[in-house]
Write a structure and sequence with these properties.
The chain has helices at about 5-30, 30-35, 65-85, 90-110, 135-150; strands spanning about 35-40, 45-50, 115-120. With about 170 residues, the protein is mainly alpha-helical. It has a 3-stranded antiparallel beta sheet.
Length: about 170
């Protein structure tokens, strides 16, 4: 299977899981109005947070921010899809997780004007005030996978096993 196809398949799965969880929790469980649902308190709760920025609400650009961040996410997705053609399966999975998560959050920005964050986890007596969603987890996991499987381009072997030099 070509790398781009792998990436798109992983992106589709990540996107669909994100959409399904948001529809279930935010809409069907009515978290948007209830604002808090204890699940396994204090370790796991659903806590509604509308994120108009990037991570933890950082870089909130006001009314235009919705479209600035949407355009930025789409540009990053396009860049990853162009780049991933040269990698192996770890790069395809990592890029697919990032693309699927980014598109899940883009959907929220277009539909709701902000990203629906609702998973709140705390541990060890420390109350975490922040929430995230499945798309955020996919983006984080994809970035971690890309970092763990990255090698400088000069160290990557060619198909014949000989090291490549430069681009």
């Amino acid at each position: 299977m070509p790398n781009l196809a792998r990436t798109l398949l992983v992106a589709l799965v990540a996107f669909l899981i994100d959409r399904a969880t948001k529809i279930w929790v935010v809409v069907h469980l009515d978290l948007a109005n209830r604002m808090h649902i204890p699940v396994a308190d204090p370790w796991l709760n659903f806590a509604m947070a509308w994120n108009e920025g990037i991570n933890f609400g950082l870089f909130n650009f006001g009314a235009a921010g919705r479209w600035i961040l949407t355009a930025l996410a789409l540009a990053i997705c396009a860049g990853l899809l162009a780049w991933v053609r040269r990698g192996g399966w770890p790069q395809a999975v990592g890029a697919g997780l990032i693309v699927g998560g980014a598109l899940g959050n883009v959907w929220d920005r277009v539909r709701w004007g902000a990203v629906a964050d609702f998973i709140n986890m705390s541990c060890c007596g420390i109350a975490n005030p922040f929430a995230f969603n499945v798309a955020d987890a996919a983006i984080f996991a994809g970035a971690a996978l890309l970092l763990l499987w990255s090698r400088p381009s000069g160290d990557a072997p060619d198909d014949d096993g000989a090291p490549r030099k430069g681009w």
